[in-house]
Structure formats: structure tokens, C-alpha cells
Amino acid sequence: MKKLFSLSILALVLIISGCKSEDNPVVPPPTPAADPLVGSWVSEGSDVAPGLASVSKTKKIYATFNANKTYKVVSTDSAGTDVTFEGTWSYTTNTGTTIMTITLNQTVPTSLTSAGIFQVGANGYMTYEVLQTSPAIPGFTVANAAEGFGSTKYNGLSLGATWIQKYVPANPTTEPLVGVWLSDGANVAPGLKSVSKTKKIDATFNSNGTYKVISTDSSNVTVTFEGTFSTQAVANTSIRTITLNQTVPSALTSTGIYRVNTAGMWYEVIQTNPAITGFTAATAALGFGSTKYNSVSLGATWIQKYVKN
User: Over the stretch 230-274, which tens digit does the pLDDT of each residue have?
Assistant: First the structure.
């Protein structure tokens, strides 16, 4: 009887324990949302603010904002000279908008404070507009979230796009080339216009590594090219290398470079196998316009520009 009583107590304890487990499930804490600013960002080409391109001859900015609230920005000018800026950052949200207000306390190469606004869009690109505020630059007032981008002022006059800086992630989580692209009009490479009478190119790059390009000439005759592609990131730049293994209408290989930024895509490739005598493909190190013939750079001749459809 005693043994039976003990078993009954044990069963009751198990039932109560089971009820407690179901009534009070252990819920793991929610994963904190990733800070949209934290990470590495790169700005090149048309993404560089016109004011920076004009005043500082800036051609590229590589910016890293760390989770510990420190930052490092490396600015490269047209002569290839780098200047590094370091310090700490903080930002606040603004009701009714996704535009944030940011403050940067720089410590390297000199101590100063800058302030302004930034926004990371749904596409993962960042728009950023800041201005030195301490020591203040006479006549200038900083952009604010209420007035939006372009609201940096000089003597009360808004300066529009002058100081708007745009960035793309330095290490994108998806292949930036994937999508449907169009090149027509002034965006068609001068070499293609001259040699092939090309007036339009529709290009589709798929996530499975295949591509289809339809080229239309001035007589509206189309030629379709198909094959596979592979790309490779290059450190500290948004320029990436690309290899295309064409299968249609004939088997050949082309190589070169491309860059996707907030305005669209720049793309420069040439046939490399079978090689075209005298030609060498553009490289990320030398940048766009570095396709060469007998060691002479051909500049804009083979630079193809696209907008995303």
C-alpha cells in the first residue's frame, strides 16, 4: 500500500511538472535587429558627392562603421592619395521618417565634429549627408531630417545634391549583377556603336550563374548571346571581376570588370579566348577604361553602361 501511495505521488508530480512546462514555455529572447549603419561601405564613380569630387578631387571612399561605435573612413583622391579619418559615431531616429540624424566625433587626423543625416534604403544602399559643425564653417548649416537630403545650406540657400554621398555595401550578401539590365542611347559603348552598330542591349544575369544578352543594331537586327558567368570581389572597391563562358551562338570566353552602384552598372569586357591579337582586358587595379590595344589604354571605348529594369 505504501509503495502504491509513493507511485501515486510520483505520478502527480510528473503531471504537475508537465502542466508547468506547457503553461510556462521557455521563450528565447528576440534577436536584436541589425544596426543598418554597421558594416563596410564603398562609394565610387557617380556615387561620390559632387562637392567632394570638386573640392577634394575624391574618387573613392571606403567607410567602416563598427558596432562599438567607432568608425574608419579612407578617402582616395584622383591622384591615388589616401587620407584616413577615425573617430566615434552616434545617431538618433526621427519620428515619421527613416532618415537618421548622425553625429561624428573625429579624432584622426584632427579633432572635430561633423553632423548630418543618413538613410539605409530597402535596397541596402545608403544615402549620407554630413558637414563639419565644430569648428563651424562660416555660412554653412547642416542637413536635417525634416527637410531631407539636399538641405545642407550656405547662407540660407539649399545646396541640393552637392554634398549628398551615396554608398553600396562593400560586402553584399547577394550578387549585385543579378537582374535585368538595359543599355541604350548614350550608355552604349562607343566601340560597340562603331564596330557592331549596336543601339541597344538587353542583359539578364540569373542567380544560377547563367546569362542571356540580346543585342539590337541600328537595323533592328538582334543577336542573342547565352552562357554562364562567375564574378569575384576585389578588396576595398566596388569593382568586381567577371568571366563569361559563352555557349550561344558560339563557344568563347570573355573577361573584364563591372561595378554596380546606386545609379546603375558600368561594365567593361572583351573576348579573351580565343584571344584577339593585341588586346588585353580591363582590370580592377587599373579601373574602367583600362582595356588596352598594344599596351595603349582605350579609355571609354569599351565601357558599357546599364540601368536596372
Answer: 999 999 999 999 999 999 999 999 999 999 999 999 999 999 999
Parent domain of 262: 179-308
The pairing of beta strand 304-308 with beta strand 153-154: unpaired
Query: 133, 151, 169: which is the final residue of a domain?
Result: 169
For residue 134, give Cα distances in angstroms to 24, 66, 108, 113, 137. 54, 23, 15, 5, 8
Let me know whether 48 and 158 are in one domain. Answer: yes
Q: Which residue(s) pair with 259 in the sheet?
A: 239, 266
Residue linked to cell 567602416? 64
User: Residue for cell digits 521563450?
Assistant: 27
Q: Which residue reads 595603349 in cell numbers?
A: 296
Return the half-sphere exposure (C-beta side, CA atoms, 13 A cut-off) of residue 272: 18
Q: Half-sphere exposure of residue 208, counting CA atoms within 13 Å on the CB side?
A: 3
The model's pTM: 0.85
Residue 114 lies in a domain: yes
d(C-alpha 151, C-alpha 130), whole Å: 10
Question: What's the Rg (C-alpha) of the chain?
Answer: 27
Place of cell 531631407: 148
Distance CA 160, CA 154 (A): 11
Residue type, position 71, single letter: Y
Residue corresponding to grid cell 587599373: 286
Cell of 156: 540660407
Mean pLDDT, residues 175-188 taken together: 98
Q: Nearest 5°: CA angle at 305, between 300 and 309?
A: 175
Read off the C-alpha cell for 175: 550578387
